[in-house]
Amino acid sequence: MDARLNPFTSPTAGKAFKHLMSVGKVIKDSALSATTQELVSLRVSQINGCAVCIDMHTKEATAAGETPVRLHLVAAWREATVFTEAERAALELAEEGTRTADGAGGVTDEVWARAAKYYDEEALNVLVLLIAVMNMANRINVITQQPGGTYVAGQFH
């Protein structure tokens, strides 16, 4: 598959992507664990069908020491026993935050309360930013048909 556009060659999109990369760095440098960030990024990307982001976050998680078993089970995290309760709360928040059009009312109070049980206000802010940024990146990549499979861990660091 060939991409419809290369946003990095557009003066306007290129400027915007510099800002998006800056936001991504702020999130990456936050106190929220790299494992949680990669699991959430991967799950959001799976839901949205973003091949390039699934490729990226699978490889970044692997480079950070994540196990193949956990990566393979992210899509079925509810039935898997390999995730902590905090990770499960973050994955649930990511799903409801991604499927806002599917669920009347967006993120439920129950899902928010479960996340707040494990994450303080700062970490919740980071999770919300991460979920929103991933959804935006996924949509740009899906609309422009960015192919997955060639990402190298650390490529954008």
TrEMBL record:
Please state every residue range assigned to the domain named Carboxymuconolactone decarboxylase-like.
20-96
**Provenance organism:** Streptomyces virginiae (Streptomyces cinnamonensis)
Q: Which NCBIfam families match?
A: ahpD_dom
So which residues are the signal peptide here? none
- Protein name (Swiss-Prot/TrEMBL): Carboxymuconolactone decarboxylase family protein
Q: Which Pfam families match?
A: CMD
